[in-house]
Amino acid sequence: MLSIAVLFLVSFRIPQNLMKIQAGGPYDNDTAYKEKAGELSLGKQSAVNSSAKTQGFNAIFETTGANGVKLNARAVSFVKDYMDKEGNNLEKMKTWGQPYFNTIDNVLVKCNLPKELKYLAVIESELKSTATSWVGAVGPWQLMPATARLLGLKVNSKVDERKNYQKSTQAAAQHLKDLYTEFGDWLLVIAAYNCGAGNVYSAIRKSGSRNFWKLQYHLPTESRNHVKKFIATHYIFEGQGGLTTLTKQEIEEQLGASAGLIRKLNQDEIDNMQSQNISGKYFSEIVARNILMDTEEFNRYNPAFDKLMANSSVYELKLPSDKMSLFVANKYQILNESVQYFLTAASDLNSSKTIASRK
Q1: Distance between CA atoms of 12 and 251, rounded to whole angstroms?
Q2: For the domain with range 2-254, which CATH number is right: 1.10.530.10, 3.30.413.10, 1.10.8.140, 3.20.20.140?
């Protein structure tokens, strides 16, 4: 698997019309002194927050987002500058790109991947099926001919399935899944998608670390900025970071060790799975009981559910189709029971503290 990944990942390239990032260019703002300043200023970010109104995105640099995800200090300068340059165009894409995002989302969900990976297609091609780089990468996911064929796409004088949103996304999803199996870290996956797994392994070896923020300067400039473009785009579209904007270590520290794992589901389970965004204080045991599902089985579809629900305003619930139907039919009852559970737990905790203080 490793040798195959190295072979075809080295052929990835950014389209020529998107190759804006060069040393000293408008987005090369992650110099050592700026990163050091960012590290020292984490405690002072409230000042940044109060003045950050870039392209209408207020309070985007909160130390902790609504879902508990923190923007790494080394990314703040880059993200802000990228929003200055690209925020307006990307804001417009939220509207005209919705049909394409819907297609991509459906494929990523079926492949058991975070939907936010769709922002990789944004920075690769601006969602254009006709995008072509000077080295021959084509389509929304900018696949090279040999890579596309290895992933099962037809590329010949008559047919080029790299331009097909559905099929090219399926191919890219397989790439991303293979890379995640290899690196277990979404930022390294994004880097490898751009410059190849071989360059990422070289950076790991030279830096002695698997942390993107420590190894980044051993990557090509284009590739390390590619990762930061992805992070910035995620913040512009989502208003906050997420699993795919964090290193493996950051995920474990902020969201729990199991949060970044790809759900361990077989293909039949994935094909029969439905997804729905939910908000509110749901509790896994109560959800599972109401949809007649074993709690352990529920958590297999939704790892770290309780921790992520506690730290996030929105959660992407995934369930078998029949269980999702039960959830939708009973969601308000489930939410009410969950809220009552938390209120009772809080009351019991306060009572225990009161009794303890009287002893």
Answers
A1: 27
A2: 1.10.530.10
